[in-house]
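This part of the workshop introduces the protein records we will be handling. An example says more than a description, so a record of this kind follows:
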Amino acid sequence: MAEQTISITLNGEAKEVAADQTGVQLFAEDKNIIAVRLNGEPRDLYTELHDGDVVEPIALDSEDGLAIMRHSATHVMAQAVQEIRPDAKLGVGPVIKDGFYYDFDVETPFTPDDLKEIEKRMQRIIKSSQSFRRRVVTEEEALAEESDQPYKLELIKDKEAHLDPEAATEISEKELSFYDNVDRDGNVVWKDLCRGPHLPNTRYIKAFKIERSAAAYWRGNEANPMLQRIYGAAFATKEDLKAYQTRLEEAAKRVTTASSARKWICSPSRTRSVRAWLCSIRRAPL
């Protein structure tokens, strides 16, 4: 029996490929390709292809590739947090400039030691080479799977959640999906409500750093519960991460230098019989 094929456009050129091929086979020779743009939309390498599809590669070090990698790093961080604090409730985990964050509802705020432990746990997860596998679900299935996650339940029920820039990483207007983290033995070891796309596996996260934690209101509304937000940075290479950290250190030094070159000059004044001090910043004499 002849092998079934489909016609696709790959990098602008018509191509016949096996009907069961995905981006994994198409770009098997280039390990820098971590996802595809399928008919204009970023999708996982594992995504099934159809006749007439337009396929373009997404490299890890491209703008889209970095965003996908950082979002996968967010999932790894959330997995690490829930391994350390199983009672943690998940908020949202979007990509931001140079990195990512995730919001958690926990009983006590994260300490610097907690962040170090989370980073170490992330490193172990990354080395275990877990794959990210997308799974489409119905609303009823999503509600059942997230029954113990109140913030995820809110997003599932909110029909306009996809319009919220923060929640858009979790919810799609078209369909609901989970991403399962699958170990080498095929076991699902963690999952999260997410629209994707993601890396083929965790080992593509090559350079990251947990930076700090802060308090943040759920969905930016002060009427909502206050959550704990953990920030991280992630880059395609260790060299890029080091360059980023160097830029931050140099910027901090400039701020310190500028501050030390100024001092407060104060003089007494009297306004409406109330004695006060008028102060202004002056450059300190060299």
